[in-house]
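**User:**
My hope is that you can spare some time for a protein that puzzles me. This is the protein in question:
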Amino acid sequence: MTSDKPHYTGHRQRLKDRFRSGGTQALADYELLELLLYTAIPRRDVKPLAKDLIARFGSYAEVITAPPGQLMEVSGVGDTVITALKLVEASAQKLAQGQIMDKPVLSNWQALIDYCQIKMGHQKTEQFRILFLDRQNRLIADEKQQQGTIDHTPVYPREVIKRALELHSTAIILVHNHPSGDPTPSRDDVDMTKRIEEAGKQLGVLLHDHLIISKSGQTSLKTLGLI
């Protein structure tokens, strides 16, 4: 008598068992992605699709953070798959944000770095964000001020400080990403930071740091002695 169960049913159960007992360390990137995809497409063998996505983008993280337009270029990817992938990305960002929002960030620095890495490390275009702090250095707002091209984002010091004053913020942390993967600050990065620092001093807004984020790591201009 032939079983009515699809051939991949036992395979899925084994993946789930390995994940529950060993966590992400027990699975290859494509296997972790496969577990996610089968919740979106339960009646299909998604192992080939998982492998195709990893082959195209390189890693689980790169698949999750890939732009929807690029994901759609992979055969077998539709709205359901993209929604599942973007839900995981948004959930990771929300969890990381919960570790720092309304908390003193200077004493919780690693959590701040982790959040910025999750939020911006895999972005494909430059993004400039401002973290606004109150007098107790608690994070009260995180806003994207500008988004630019792959290697340039226009930033206007007057607008940065104006927004800080609107939020009654007494200190800020600047954050932007380098899609190239190299978090080394450029001369423009340094010059722009100094202009914002000077504008803030005139109006009582302290610049704590400027973080540059990339998928390979991050750089602090304060640590480099540039602030």
Notes: The beta strands are 127-133, 139-147, 171-177, 206-214, 217-220. Residues 9-94 form a domain with the DNA polymerase; domain 1 fold (CATH 1.10.150). The chain has a mean pLDDT of 88. The chain has nine helices and five strands.
